[in-house]
Amino acid sequence: MKRFEDKGGALILAIVLTAFVSFGCVEGMVANDPPPGPYCNIYLSRDKGMVNKYFSARITYSSNFVSTPEYGYNGTLPAGLSLDSNTGQLSGVPTLAGFYNVRFYVRDLNRGTHDQPSGEKWWYYHDYELKLYDKMEDSDR
């Protein structure tokens, strides 16, 4: 019985399939297509801390729209913490342990936000749960 030996046929097939998937199935942007819509991804540098210990976190973002940020929040910040609306710095000494659901917002200070189809202006936001402990175990960090 003669053994089949593949002399590169599988490699050629892989290249052909990759080219088909890459070029044949994916539609690229055409020169006259409008640019993608405005976006803003929001990040919080830290969401865990301890009561009676200094806490500091910063809101950062990546965006194709926001260039001069203004920061805000909705919900209840833990007692002892405050947000600087100019820098996005969340800091202070929390006084009460617990889990706090807070929505952090970013918008462009000069331009506001882009208009929604409804005509309403809004901020970009992301929800976080701030976790403040009386004592932190290694598993909580």
Task: Please give the radius of gyration in angstroms.
Answer: 25 Å
Largest β-sheet summary: 4 strands, antiparallel
CATH homologous superfamily title: Immunoglobulins
Count of β-strands: 8
Could you name the CATH class? Mainly Beta
Bin the helical content.
10-25%
Q: What spatial order of strands do you see in the largest sheet?
A: 1-3-6-5
Question: What is the end-to-end distance?
Answer: 63 Å
The CATH architecture can be named as Sandwich
Q: Let me know the average pLDDT.
A: 76
What amount of the residues lies in strands? 35-45%
Structural class: mainly beta
Number of helices: 1
Q: What's the CATH topology name?
A: Immunoglobulin-like
Q: What is the N-to-C order of secondary-structure elements (H for helix, E for strand)?
A: HEEEEEEEE
Overview of this protein structure:
The protein has one helix at residues 9-24; strands at 40-44, 48-50, 55-63, 69-75, 81-83, 89-92, 98-108, 124-133. The chain is mainly β and 141 residues long. It has a single domain (40-140), classed as Immunoglobulins (Immunoglobulin-like, Sandwich), CATH 2.60.40. The strands form two sheets. A four-stranded antiparallel β-sheet has the order 1-3-6-5, with no helix packed on it. The longest helix has 16 residues, at 9-24. The radius of gyration is 25 Å and the shape is elongated. The termini are far apart. 17% of the residues are buried.
Task: Tell me the layout of helices and strands.
Elements: H1 9-24, E1 40-44, E2 48-50, E3 55-63, E4 69-75, E5 81-83, E6 89-92, E7 98-108, E8 124-133
Parallel strand pairs: 2-8
Antiparallel strand pairs: 1-3, 3-6, 4-7, 5-6, 7-8
